[in-house]
Amino acid sequence: MDKMRAFRDKYLAPKQNEALRIIDIGAQEVHENGSYKPLFKDFTNWKYQGVDMVAGNNVDIVLQDPYDWKQIDSNSVDVVISGQAFEHIEFFWITMLEVARVLRPGGICCIIAPSGGYEHRYPVDCWRFYPDGFTALAKYARLDPVEVYTQWEDLSAYDPGTNCWHDSVLIAKKNHTSGWRDCLRRYLIQLSRSL
């Protein structure tokens, strides 16, 4: 929560008077973990929408396919956020192409995922992320990395059970319109379906 709050304060708070569409990938509230929605609800010009693969608490848009978001138009979103979801996405690089597709030129994303920790399937647990990997992922999707880091140290403010994750954060900006990457995205979607 502290990392997403820092992103909001640094990159979005200066736009508090602008109309922003914010989507949260993997937004379903599971157990007592809560959601990022409270971080955005007090800004009246911002529209927060939770996105997930299943209906549930805090889910406004249910995706039929994690790699082909037909429910969200290209270049229609100002901000894409996601926390603790990318480690559960088998082909996360295709999902990142969808993040780039739906972002408007000038739009920004904040992706948070662990660099460590124990296996926690939901329903699978596939990946861990480091700054170089997140930077490469942004470049792959033709997004410009703005800030990339990992919380390497344990923090005393954290509950002892949460220090193990050492989350990595990617903040990246879209400075172009869609092009040949859309063709690549379609090819990868088809390839993932054949696996």
Q: Can you give a write-up of this model?
A:
- The chain has 195 residues and is α/β, with parallel strands linked by helices.
- It has one domain: Vaccinia Virus protein VP39 (Rossmann fold), CATH 3.40.50.
- 26% of the residues lie in helices and 25% in strands.
- The protein contains 5 helices and 7 strands; from the N terminus they run H-E-H-E-E-E-H-E-H-E-E-H.
- It has a 7-stranded mixed sheet, sandwiched between helices.
- Helix 3 links the parallel strand 4 and strand 5.
- The longest helix is centred in the C-terminal third of the chain and has 15 residues.
- The radius of gyration is 16 Å and the shape is globular.
- The model has no long low-confidence stretch (mean pLDDT 92).
Question: What secondary-structure arrangement, pairings included, does this model have?
Answer:
Elements: H1 2-12, E1 20-25, H2 37-40, E2 46-52, E3 61-62, E4 77-83, H3 92-102, E5 103-114, H4 131-140, E6 144-150, E7 167-173, H5 180-194
Parallel strand pairs: 1-2, 1-4, 2-3, 4-5
Antiparallel strand pairs: 5-7, 6-7
Keywords, please?
single chain; 195 residues; alpha/beta; Rossmann fold; seven-stranded mixed β-sheet; 5 helices
State the separation between the terminal residues, measured CA to CA: 35 Å
| Rg calculated over all Cα atoms | 16 Å
State the name of the first-level CATH class: Alpha Beta
In terms of quaternary structure, the protein is single chain
In short:
By secondary structure, the chain is of the alpha/beta class. Helices cover 26% and strands 25% of the residues.
